[in-house]
Amino acid sequence: MDLLLDIALLALLLATAISIAWIKDLFAAAMLAGIYGLLSAGFFMTMGAVDVAFTEAAVGAGISPLLIVMTLALCGRYQRADRARARLAIALVASVGAMLIAATVDMPSFGDANAPAHMHVAPHYISESMAEIGIPNIVTSVLASYRGFDTFGEVVVIFTAGLGVLSLLMARAEQPLQASPQTPVEAQSRDIVLRVVAKVLIAPIMLYALYVQFHGEYGPGGGFQAGVIFAVGFILYGLVFGLDAVRKVASHGLVQMLSAVGVLIYGCVGLLSLVSGKNFLDYGALAGNPVTGQHVGIIAIELGVGITVAAVMIMVFYLFSAQLRVRSVQLPATASSAAISPLDDLQGVEGRAG
Predict the structure, then answer these.
(1) Reduced to 3 DSSP states, what percent helix, strand and coil does the chain have, rounded to the nearest 5?
(2) At which of 108, 138, 163 does a domain end?
(3) Which residues form the MrpA C-terminal/MbhD domain (predicted)?
(4) Kind and range of the H or E element at 151?
(5) CA atoms of 134 and 128, how far apart (whole Å)
(6) Which of 90, 234, 256, 330 is at 20 to 30 A from 203, Cα to Cα?
């Protein structure tokens, strides 16, 4: 039964990938990309990688399609016919794919008990993690403690990516990032069903984000997943009630500051370890009992991860929404084409051509 499920998921993944590459309707391709992320999450679940599945569901099937759709609202829904560029893209994908396939030849078979990771690293994590770290979720032990340097690098990469988006879009979006003179009613989506549903969903989304943030030691979750879920609550509020309304809760300047604060929290935990005479990110120095120190350090760095991820996602949403406002200002100001909220701009994707 497991084999049939794996074959079915792989077949669906292959069909979805081919459809994404073949279709010229970019809006449909964005929706298929979300489906691909959801199928990938299901495939990770069948392999027992629950934390990875959680991340893929939140990022690949959740916030990424939304950002792609917001991009389409700026550049158009349909792909322009450019056969020369298409041939170049196919050649690039084929060459990279061939190199990846060649690289897998030297890798051990999936689940091979004699693989180096299973012979050396995995036994130590499995047998010693509870005694050294003191938390039941081995994945969190590995990500937050054993390979804390690598996770710190990932947080810095997310922060740097946010700075890249900020530097590219901030110049054109500077004026629209200031509050507009729209009234609260004008700033909202005109769909009353969406407003009511959003009011019902936003509080549980925030509560679930906090649960994922502080329950990562005992089950699937952690700062990366919680940060994305927390950002989704703000993005949903902004889509339905307008950009100005959500910025009253979290201004653009505050979000920029928090994106750096999360990285600083993570780095300061390592500096505290150094000051205490231990190695960088050696959480055992944070308390008299090394296991207690591990708990304190993991909670602190996961909080930093969650803050940075949430702030960067919200900042990217603000910047894209400001670009949509720039576009709407540049268009002729007619009652039929005026954009009232980011959600109304996204609904206009269907009518725009590249």
Answers:
(1) 75, 0, 20
(2) 108
(3) 11-74
(4) helix 148-173
(5) 9
(6) 256
- The lowest-confidence range among 74-83, 288-297, 342-351 is 342-351
Give the integer Cα–Cα distance in Å for 263 and 164. 16
In angstroms, rounded to a whole number, what is the distance separating the alpha carbons of residues 176 and 170?
10
Take residue 329 and report the two structure tokens written for it.
């200002």
pLDDT in tens, 314-326: 999 988 888 776 6
DSSP state of 121: I
For residue 336, pLDDT over 70 is answered with: no
**293-305 as b/e: b if 16+ CB within 10 A:** bbbbbbbbbbbbb
pLDDT confidence bin for 338, thresholds 50/70/90: very low
CATH number of the domain encompassing residue 66: 1.20.120.1200
Residue 248, CA distances (Å) to 115, 178, 245, 341 in order: 53, 11, 5, 15
Number of H helices, E strands in the chain: 16, 0
Residues 123 and 79 in one domain: no
Q: Could you list the residue range(s) of the whole structural domain that residue 143 is in?
A: 116-354
* Co-location of 71 and 130 in the same domain: no
**What's the CA gap between 138 and 128, in Å, rounded?**
10
Beta partners for 25?
Answer: 78
| Domain total of the chain | 2
Residue 22 token pair: 């073949």
pLDDT tens digits along 136-183: 888 888 888 888 899 999 999 999 998 988 888 776 555 555 545 444
Where does a domain end: 77, 108, 139?
Answer: 108
Residue 51 CA: distances (Å) to CA of 141, 214, 289: 12, 14, 28
Contacts with 41 (C-beta within 8 Å, 6 or more apart), sequence order: 53, 54, 56, 57, 60, 61
Q: What phi-psi label fits residue 323: left (phi over 0), alpha (psi between -120 and 50 degrees) or beta?
A: alpha
104 and 120 housed in the same domain: no
64, 207: one domain = no
